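Supplementary Methods S3. Complex input for the zinc ion-bound model.
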Amino acid sequence: MKREPAFIYSDAYTDYQFNADHPFNQQRVVMTKELLEAEGKLFDHHIVHPRVASVEELALVHDRQYIEAVKRAGNGQLSEEDAWQYGLGTEDTPMFSGMHEAASLLVGGTLTAIDSVLNNKAPQALNLGGGLHHGFKRKASGFCVYNDAAVAIKYIRDRYRLRVLYVDTDAHHGDGVQSFFYHDPEVCTLSIHETGRYLFPGTGSISERGVKEGYGYTFNLPIDAFTEDDSFLSVYESAFKEITEYFQPDIIITQNGADSHCYDPLTHLCTTTKTFESIPMVARKIAEQYCEGRWVGLGGGGYDIWRVVPRAWSQIWSVMLTGNILTGPLPVEWKRKWEVNSPVSLPESWQDGGGLYKPIPRKPEITEKNQLTLNQCLQYCRNKRQFSSLE
Ligand SMILES: [Zn+2]
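Predicted complex, serialized as structure tokens:
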């Protein structure tokens, strides 16, 4: 029987909810799943239920005191003062009932995805509930409590001893994941994000390259505000290819935040559906070329949950399943169900038409600047490869 990818999913993913008005809304995962079902691309046999990550697993990267604090926060037993030192109870990352359990399930989903692929049950796996890249060792940040990607990478290192390439295309810098592996030459991270000049978390400059043995295994590609599809994709594909060639990973993990779209309310990038079609196509091709197809995809940010995220994330699954993107009109029954609640009119088709935003006057300068940033970002691995070829 042909092996098919695994779609990690639970209705309980929506329990990870800070409050009714919070921009981080896991209803996006439900909408994506239903869109794929309506399109006839996702069936029950693809769906794998996530396990819950144990405290031992969370403690692979998180401080036990922090885990205890999250548990207490979820039971209403953490004082505001104590919460503050753990980054909890802030406007971004408020405390909510059951937050430890809800966050542990998202991490467990990413571990389930990893095991599906590394135990050869599935060629690729997708956990759209995960991708919470801002979680730190003892601190919640930017809507992220536990860092599922970091737990999963440490789990792969401990259990499977494989080399991991982590590629993060969220509009925000993947600061949490980077922080856990900054010393580690067996884990390579690449984050492409809007420059931190005007955007949270402010880090992710080219000069952050890792330390000690890990020097040269952290890559940051901060792109300009108002970057459009062509420039985004050009630097993404070049960086991904060259870094994979340089690092030679055994498995690739992608974080697929969908907040670089021009409709996204929290960022200033200007991509369209075109970017979200190419991102997984490139990931699949590179995974096939370098790691026998082993690829785990995660979700991430994405705050236009109506017009952007379900279409963007569905394309990752479509590429995993078929190698192709979805085109044409969106399924009518899906639109009919969700348009009742949507504050904006839902798109008609998988692809954005033209005219989504006003032409960007500085386009040539932005493109040139991003190309320069790419060259600086890759300089280290280019030099190193040149050097090793002379040896
Ligand atoms: Zn983001």
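The chain has a mean pLDDT of 97. Residues 170-172, 257, 259, 300-301 surround zinc ion (CB under 6 Å).
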